[in-house]
Design brief:
It is built from four helices and two strands, in the order H-H-H-H-E-E. It is mainly α. It has one domain: Arc Repressor Mutant, subunit A (Orthogonal Bundle).
Length: 98
């Protein structure tokens, strides 16, 4: 039988602690919430992506359809009902709850 060396316990990573100390990047949905909370008008996913990139809140990591991904994420959030952070005002347009 071959004996394996016992694994050493990994030390807590200092990289994650340093990253948390700095400014955290917003997720796509969090950036959309921020844009909508600053806007007086409901917006569609394409407008949200454009505004998020213009304000520097979030940029697409290279995907071809970030608006479709955001739209899908908002619909998943809307499925939570009253716990949703978004409100659908009309077809394809959203605003923040509250």
């Amino acid at each position: 039988a071959v004996l394996k060396k016992p694994r050493k316990a990994k030390a807590a990573s200092t990289e994650t602690a340093d990253a948390d100390a700095g400014e955290k990047r917003l997720s796509c949905v969090a950036a959309a919430l921020k844009v909508l909370s600053e806007s007086s008008e409901p917006m569609n996913a394409q407008e949200l992506i454009t505004a998020m990139e213009a304000k520097g809140y979030w940029t697409s990591p290279g995907g071809k359809t970030p608006h479709a991904t955001l739209y899908s994420a908002i619909l998943r959030d809307l499925a939570k009902g009253d716990d949703s952070k978004f409100v659908k005002t009309e077809r394809g347009r959203f605003t923040v709850r509250g």
